[in-house]
Every structure is written in C-alpha cells, then in structure tokens.
C-alpha cells in the first residue's frame, strides 16, 4: 500500500472514531474536550505514527517495551505524549521511563518502587495510573479493587512519579457499562484522597461509548484507527 493510500485510510478511520467520541460525549452531556484520544499503535510501524501525528493526534499508546522504545526514538521529533498501556515487568522500568510520559498499568508497590527509582535517576516526572482488575483477577494485569487505594497512596508518595488516576479494561464477557460504573466509583474514591488524580483511562475500540458515559477521560483506541492486527510472531 502506498503512503498516500494508507494516509487516506487512517484519516477516514480517525474521522469515524472522532464522530463516535463526539456522539458519546453528546449523549453523556459532556464536552468533547474532556476526553483524550490515545492512539494505540502496537504492531504498526512508525510511519503510521507519523501519519496520525500529521492528522492531529498528540497521544500515542504502546504495550510492548521492545517495540515502543524503538518507535518512540524514531518519532522523537514529533513532540508526542507517549503512553505505556501494557503489563509491565519491573526489569523494564528503566527503558519505559526513558520515553513514556504516562504509564497506565501500575498495579503493585514493587513496580512503583522500580519506576520511581528510574524516574529519579533520569530526572523525569512520570504520570502513573493505577490499573484496576475489575473482575478481581490480576492475571490480566491490575490491582484488586480492594488494593487500589493502597497502591495509589504508594504512587502519590513516590519521588519522580505523579499519581494521575486509574485505568481498567472491561472484563471479558461482562457488560462494559457495568464494569466502567465500578471503575468510576473507584476513581472517585481515589480522587477524594488525592484531588489531582482525575484521569480515568477506560474504553477501547469496542466500548468507547460506555466508557465516556461513565466518566472516562482517556480512550485507548487501536483497531478502529489502524485496522485489525495480525497475530504477533515472536
């Protein structure tokens, strides 16, 4: 596919996504400006990131450090805000802190400690979101709901880190509206203790409207923008 054709394809998809977000905001009685679109570009090349940036996207998400570190370096001239949205091992903290402005998947104190240490070493401030396992199954990543406040407190007290809010993925097989309503309640309790933690990262290509209706401030959208991904060959 030529670059021009790919640009047209992405531009059309972005217009559809923007229309869907605008409609969801109208239905929820919210301003479109309250919601940040994070374009998740995992498995897609840096050339797609450049097209998205040229179309006005400022926030880009990745979920694998090995891929993200290279892409962020290749696109460093674009002035984008990089979001790390995947499960994160402590031994990747140094690399991720090197490029990520926001880490959405903070779910345990050991990871907080690793990120804090590397942020201080790098002289950076990294915004962290506490990932919540809405089904209380941490197997897919996330702190148990009962542990969210404690993890948030650890982030808030960690040098080099800023507590931004919470993040979650709707559990498989559950109505996302019900799941995101629980996340909204959790977000409100976190914000009561930490007034600056106003981010709710929720909603992907298939459940954007439900997320917006329940207060999401950041949507992580990949497939609807860039197409269905091919299976990753390791």
UniProtKB/TrEMBL annotation:
Q: Which domain of life is it from?
A: Bacteria
Residue stretches spanning the membrane: none
The protein's matches in HAMAP family, at most eight in alphabetical order, are given as:
PLP_homeostasis
Keywords from the UniProt entry: Pyridoxal phosphate
Keyword Cytoplasm assigned to the entry: answer is no
Q: Where is the Alanine racemase N-terminal domain?
A: 28-228
Kindly give the CDD domains that the UniProt entry links to this protein. Answer: PLPDE_III_YBL036c_like (cd00635)
Q: Which residues carry this modification: N6-(pyridoxal phosphate)lysine?
A: 42
Q: What does this protein do?
A: Pyridoxal 5'-phosphate (PLP)-binding protein, which is involved in PLP homeostasis.
Name the family the entry cites: Belongs to the pyridoxal phosphate-binding protein YggS/PROSC family.
Q: What is this protein called?
A: Pyridoxal phosphate homeostasis protein
Q: Annotated Gene Ontology MF terms?
A: pyridoxal phosphate binding
What are the names of the required cofactors?
pyridoxal 5'-phosphate
Q: What is the lineage of its organism?
A: Bacteria, Bacillati, Actinomycetota, Actinomycetes, Streptosporangiales
Name the Pfam families on file.
Answer: Ala_racemase_N
PANTHER family per record: PROLINE SYNTHETASE CO-TRANSCRIBED BACTERIAL HOMOLOG PROTEIN, PYRIDOXAL PHOSPHATE HOMEOSTASIS PROTEIN
């Amino acid at each position: 596919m030529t670059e021009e054709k790919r640009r047209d394809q992405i531009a059309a998809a972005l217009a559809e996504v923007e229309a869907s977000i605008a409609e969801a905001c109208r239905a929820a009685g919210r301003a479109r400006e309250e919601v940040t679109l994070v374009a998740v570009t995992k498995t897609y090349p840096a050339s797609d990131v450049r097209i998205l940036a040229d179309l006005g996207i400022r926030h880009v998400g990745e979920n694998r450090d090995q891929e993200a570190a290279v892409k962020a370096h290749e696109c460093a001239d674009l002035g984008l805000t990089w979001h790390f949205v995947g499960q994160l091992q402590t031994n990747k903290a140094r690399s991720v802190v090197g490029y990520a402005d926001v880490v959405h998947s903070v779910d345990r104190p050991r990871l907080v400690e690793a990120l804090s240490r590397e942020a201080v070493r790098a002289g950076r401030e990294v915004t962290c979101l506490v990932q919540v396992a809405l089904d209380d199954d941490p197997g897919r990543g996330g702190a148990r709901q009962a542990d969210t406040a404690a993890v948030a407190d650890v982030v808030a007290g960690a040098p080099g880190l800023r507590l931004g809010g919470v993040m979650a993925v709707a559990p498989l097989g559950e109505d996302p509206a019900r799941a995101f309503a629980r996340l909204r309640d959790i977000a409100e309790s976190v914000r009561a203790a930490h007034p600056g933690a106003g981010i709710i990262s929720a909603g992907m290509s298939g459940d954007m409207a439900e997320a917006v209706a329940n207060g999401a401030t950041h949507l992580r959208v990949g497939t609807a923008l860039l197409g269905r991904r091919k299976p990753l060959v390791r």
